[in-house]
Amino acid sequence: MSEKLEVGSIVEGKIVRIKPFGAIVSLGSLQGLVHISQVANSFVQDINDHVKVGDIVKVKVLSIDEESHKIALSIRDALPKEERQPKPQHKTEKPFRKPNQTQKPASPAEEYFRPQSSINATSDFEEKMKEWAKQSNERHTSLNKRTNKRSN
């Protein structure tokens, strides 16, 4: 099966079928699969946006399974090196902030993980427990009323 192909080699093939999970590529007498995750550097929602039947593509041979006669291929790994990896994004420097400028509010996650003083945390906990107990008693009373109405 792999007389012509070697793992790691880059070959040219023709897309003969497209499935939701990938594209079947003809490599002469053999066929291989380019999984949808191996089509492009970015997330691929619909493979039809990137390739179509009849396209000639360069693919890299990722693996060859002699027993199951499956060949795994990659279009993105066959791209030139500068196109293969996304360009690094440089962080822009934060603009100088005057001391009297207000900072933007913290995100909910930052608020959640912000350390709190133990006094404040205890009083908050006690208030929450009182509220919970009140709601629980109200629900219990409501359930008892419904049960009493059914039994009468």
UniProtKB/TrEMBL annotation:
Matches recorded under InterPro entries: NA-bd_OB-fold, Ribos_protein_bS1-like, S1_domain
UniProt xrefs under Pfam families: S1
GO terms, biological process: translation
An example Gene Ontology molecular-function term: structural constituent of ribosome
Disordered as annotated region, ranges: 75-152
Compositionally biased intervals (Basic residues): 142-152
Domain called S1 motif: residue spans: 8-76
Basic and acidic residues composition bias: residue spans: 78-96, 125-141
GO annotation, cellular component aspect: cytoplasm
Name of the protein: General stress protein 13
Organism of this sequence: Anaerotignum neopropionicum
The gene coding this protein: yugI
